[in-house]
Amino acid sequence: MSKKSAKTHSAPTTDPRRLIPRVDELLEIYQHTPTTSINRERALTIAREVQADARAGALGELNPAEPETIATRVREEYAARIAATRPSSLTPVLNATGVIIHTNLGRAPLSRPAQEALIQASGYVDVEMDLDSGRRSSTRGKAASQALVWALGTPAAEDALIVGNGAGALMLAATALCGIGGKIIISRGELIEIGAGFRLPELIEATGVELIEVGATNRTHLADYTKALEQQGATSGSATRTAIFKVHPSNYRVEGFHTEVGLKELRTLADEYAIPLIADVGSGLLHPEPLLPQEPDMASALNHGADLVIASGDKLFGGPQAGLIAGKKSYVHTLRTHPLARAVRVDKLTLAAIEASIYGRDTAPVLQALRTDPEELRQRTEKLAADVGVGEVIEHQGRVGGGGAPEYPLPGWALALPAGLSAPLRQPTTPGTAVVVAREYHGRTLIDLRCIPVEEDAALVGALKNILDKL
Ligand SMILES: *Cc1c(COP(=O)(O)O)cnc(C)c1O
Asked: Are 433 and 462 spatial neighbours (Cβ–Cβ below 8 Å)?
């Protein structure tokens, strides 16, 4: 067999596929590319993929009369692919959509202090050790939850707990406070689907807690809650394993004939029956944000009477994925010591990023993007237009996105370029070029600078020129 192939190899009518460099020849290239951080096994897989592509004709026609061309083409393709492959496939992008909390782009970007804290925490850290005594400490996560208490700055935030995400926080609260056979009273106007098929009522029912829906989609009155409690056979001061949940319908709004019951009124009822009142505000604003007057915030929810407030860490709080829980000490304790708390606990990276998001010098990037001065945005966009030498600066509204504040378009600007650029901008062919996610809208490609850090402007210009030069 080997004799035969050796013979065919030297014949002029060689099968061109035999001229494709062997795996060990390609791995030689990998060995001499110290800049790649993928391992040998991954490099081997890529070598086989390039060979298969060459055989299938994907690298162009293989002409047996030009054996060197074939070999060179395959080697170059392999070198390019291993240079472009990183150990993690998640690709950093410039978000030029103007959507601040872009679910498909990982929601909130972390502030620089949070990024640094996260890297520092990635090695060995004293997450469960008291460095004074050298013994195991039982204060895992305490610094991060105390940071949240401090940031909320209200006596009503007696304690806090950080879990894996907002959904995990809801699940833990429902399970620990009510449990199987327990009951949660909630308005029909708040039985929301958040995105990607995640429905809050389904999540709550999956915990074995019974949902008691009250009111109508557009209107719910205090009497609806009272009636539900009475129908459950509860008498004043005696309802057990029952809670009232108030959920912010983050991503839609009811206009017109609409009534909901505020936390202050619900507080009175909850006191009467001695049951917990839980508010899920969704977005994780710590305090009222003047630019988003309809968006609930954690501190106000507590001040208005919620026993516990729940929010996401990676929406308008602007931190890592997490579920933020704050409020009454006794309820936080019930959640923290419930067996399920272990299933939704966060790792040291999240704890570090939460704490640094609160104490770090920089304002959360999501809040910076939200508060961007439209005039500043216009000037930056004019400069971008001048730098790339193409396009028109037009008015363009930014969005909070991520299921938050649907009613607030944010005044701003965008650079309007010819249609169809968003696809090549996502897949630049020149190595080292920034990947840009832009918006196709009404026959144009729009570049909105709201969510792009100023220090990335040069990279953005490079990416745009790279595509425009090819047109
Ligand atoms: C986003 C959201 C959730 C879910 O939070 P995750 O952190 O995505 O799990 C729950 N409730 C409301 C009101 C939300 O807006």
From this structure: yes
